[in-house]
Q: What sequence folds into this?
């Protein structure tokens, strides 16, 4: 029967045989899956694994710098690419969720492709695909949207004519985490909540601007740090904030304000396919709401999403 130790050992061995002296290029996302996949491949072929970590301008606050350092600490051969401007330009004026996903996916491929071409004789593309991705990538999202374009599954290989290596494509998330623990990946990476490839791009409803990203990053960081401070982070499966395209009236002193509303979403789940809203303590929600409204300029109202999946999805777009 399955153990993470046996899986790690046999996977590294078979990667060595399969890859030999070939070079592999891989995009890292900061998430558990790509980190574990990259570390297994790195154990098999060392510096022949070239990792690329792209700042798409849609990551959490300080995430790019922090994650890049974690990767360097793991010994991975990684380069960080600041492509914020390219992503914001590609997203300019777009409001439809699938159009935004496609623009983000396309831009990612362009940036990644340009970086990958700087490496001589790459033969393989490494991917952190896990079993549920294989299923979800063909699932139907909603009435107005046909198929969700999970850009981390499709797209790249056809364009780059690379063979694919995906050491985790038969595992579920909890198994990936066990393997990660087995190969000593730090817990701040292992226990990190899932985060969608399009990032904050699908949590800013409507069009995206650098200013909106900054507002949402500040809100999200208060929420996530609050969960960590109150020891609630590990009890929810995923959490984040959504910037609503809604302004509402508030008061500040004697003045009326007319500012943004944000939604907080936290869910419990096993695999993301179904989810319940997390029954977070009222006191915690009260503290976080006050901190957000007091500290984040431009936000005067916070609501908490109490919808379960199905029928509501985890993301709002
Ligand atoms: P939904 O919103 O469909 O999300 O309930 C289920 C899980 O998938 C993540 N998600 C995405 N991940 N690209 C991704 O890489 C996407 O376009 C995307 N859309 C949703 C979501 O964060 C949740 O973990």
A:
């Amino acid at each position: 029967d399955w153990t993470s130790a046996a899986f790690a050992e046999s996977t590294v061995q078979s990667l060595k045989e399969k890859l030999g002296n070939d070079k592999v290029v891989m995009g890292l996302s900061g998430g558990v899956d790509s980190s574990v996949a990259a570390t297994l491949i790195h154990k098999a072929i060392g510096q022949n694994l070239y990792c690329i970590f792209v700042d798409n301008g849609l990551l959490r606050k300080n995430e790019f710098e922090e994650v890049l350092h974690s990767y360097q600490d793991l010994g991975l051969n990684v380069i960080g690419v600041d492509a914020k401007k390219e992503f914001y330009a590609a997203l300019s004026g777009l409001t439809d969720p699938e159009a935004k996903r496609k623009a983000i996916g396309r831009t990612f491929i362009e940036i990644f492709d340009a970086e990958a071409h700087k490496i001589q004789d790459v033969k393989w593309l490494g991917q952190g695909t896990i079993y549920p991705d294989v299923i979800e990538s063909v699932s139907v999202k909603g009435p107005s949207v046909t198929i969700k374009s999970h850009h981390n599954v499709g797209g790249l290989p056809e364009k780059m004519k690379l063979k694919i290596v995906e050491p985790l494509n038969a595992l579920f998330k909890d198994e990936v985490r066990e393997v990660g623990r087995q190969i000593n990946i730090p817990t701040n990476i292992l226990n990190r909540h899932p985060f969608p490839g399009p990032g904050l791009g699908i949590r800013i409803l409507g069009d995206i601007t650098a200013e909106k990203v900054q507002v949402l990053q500040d809100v999200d960081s208060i929420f996530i740090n609050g969960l960590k401070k109150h020891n609630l982070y590990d009890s929810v499966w995923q959490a984040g904030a959504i910037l609503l395209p809604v302004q509402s009236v508030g008061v500040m002193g004697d003045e009326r304000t007319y500012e943004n509303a944000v939604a907080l979403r936290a869910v419990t789940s096993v695999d993301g396919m179904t989810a319940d809203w997390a029954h977070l303590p009222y006191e915690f929600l009260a503290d976080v709401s006050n901190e957000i409204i007091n500290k984040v300029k431009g936000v005067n109202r916070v609501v908490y999403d109490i919808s379960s999946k199905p029928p509501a999805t985890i993301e709002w777009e």
Remarks:
- Confidence is low (pLDDT under 50) at residues 139-154.
- Residues 129 and 315 are 20 Å apart (CA to CA).
- Residues 101, 148, 150, 152, 194, 196-198, 238, 272, 309, 313-315 surround xanthosine-5'-monophosphate (CB under 6 Å).
